[in-house]
Design goal:
Rossmann fold; alpha/beta; 389 residues; three-stranded parallel beta sheet; 2 domains; seven-stranded mixed beta sheet
Length: 389
């Protein structure tokens, strides 16, 4: 009996020791990753998707045991869609919070600000929401692009217009953003190649104030197509104004807003026919490995489908995780060297950058809302429906 009790005692003490060991492992400091999220202002809609993707990945990686056996902790500050605030918050993340890694904010303007700080501190940054060229003209070594560059995003639209004998185009753009300036520069270049006549070319600075006047001039020009390059608030304002004016060109295209899964819910029947460039779509025709699982997990985690903004953020997380596991280190210089040489495929698509960090592996395509549903209309190999003009 005494032997039995001694055995039970040793078993109990052993369990206590095991618990202590488990607590010691669990007590390892987390891998801290910081970023800003726009909870206010012009970038709210796409940034909500990005933030959810970051949180989904962190939840999944922690269930798998974390990075290097350590749990991942996210610090996300509200940058209010403000460039100066973004810069200050990334300084806080790196200097005060002492984060191990940084994720990027959304948009070219905020990425410009955040990457000034990350580059000065030699920290890797994968830009999940910047398509303009400007961030990569500064000779930075630690900044890498995921999106297909803005100048190429409307090629498909112009190709389809030319094939349908639609020959004229009006262009409206928010001239306060390098993204929009690059977007329309690409339109101008490719319109020349496809022999399309740009009959109205209007930049503006304040959508609420300026769009009614410039849209009157656009209507008078009577072009076959109208393209707006702007962030979502101006896209929704344009749709409202077109309805009030009872004006709709044969081709209506715009950036960012139409790719959001809730676009039709927000604008109703007016969504039908609208085209937009997209970096990715949550449909079965997307062939990239892990895409279907990501779509399913994101929907369970958030209650709705992801946009390409979410896919880009999740792809960046995949790349960070891959780099850390390969290097078995959080040394940002080692991670940077790994990413710079990488040629791989994520849920977003192919990832490969040139020596400047510009994305050269991934291509965008064109979607159109038809009968309340998003369809891929270009390129032909990815089509889920023909374009309706």
């Amino acid at each position: 009996m005494k032997a039995y009790l001694r055995c039970k005692l040793w078993l109990f003490l052993g369990l206590l020791a095991m618990c202590g060991l488990t607590q010691a492992v669990a007590g390892e400091p987390p891998v801290v990753i910081g970023a800003t999220a726009s909870l206010e202002g012009r970038y709210v809609e796409p940034l909500a998707m990005i933030q959810q993707a970051y949180r989904l990945w962190a939840d999944e990686v922690n269930q798998r045991g974390g990075l290097l056996g350590r749990q991942v902790k996210l610090i996300l500050y509200d940058d209010k869609s403000d460039r100066d605030l973004t810069r200050r918050l990334y300084i806080k993340l790196i200097k005060q919070d002492m984060v191990d890694l940084v994720f990027s904010p959304y948009s070219t303007p905020l990425t410009l600000a955040a990457s000034e700080v990350s580059e000065a501190n030699k920290m890797l940054m994968l830009a999940v929401g910047a398509a303009a060229e400007t961030p990569w003209r500064r000779g930075y070594r630690h900044l890498f692009q995921l999106y297909a560059p803005a100048k190429r995003e409307f090629i498909g639209l112009l190709d389809m217009m030319a094939r349908h004998n639609l020959t004229s185009l009006s262009v409206l753009y928010d001239e306060t953003s390098a993204f929009n300036l690059d977007m329309v520069a690409g339109i101008k270049e490719w319109a020349g190649i496809y022999k399309l006549d740009i009959v109205s070319w209007q930049g503006y600075r304040d959508g609420k104030k300026d769009l009614p006047g410039v849209l009157t001039a656009v209507k008078a020009a009577a072009a076959d197509g109208l393209v707006l390059s702007a962030y979502p608030p101006d896209c929704y304002e344009l749709i409202r104004l077109l309805g009030a004016m009872q004006y709709r060109p044969k081709v209506l295209a715009m950036t960012i807003a139409p790719v959001h899964p809730d676009f039709y819910k927000k604008v109703g029947e007016a969504a039908n026919g609208i085209l937009a460039p997209s970096q990715w779509e949550p449909i079965e025709r997307i062939p990239f490995p892990g895409t279907q699982r990501f779509i399913e997990q994101f929907k369970v985690f958030t209650g709705h489908l992801p946009s390409f903004h979410a896919a880009s953020a999740y792809a960046a997380c995949q790349l960070y995780e891959q780099a850390v596991e390969h290097a078995q280190s959080l040394d940002n210089e080692k991670l940077r060297d790994y990413i710079a040489a990488l040629n791989t495929v994520t849920v977003l698509g192919r990832f490969k950058v040139d020596p400047a960090g510009v994305q050269v592996g991934h291509n965008s395509f064109i979607i159109q809302w038809q009968d309340g549903k998003k369809e891929i209309v270009w390129p032909q190999k990815m089509q889920t429906a023909d374009a309706a003009f």
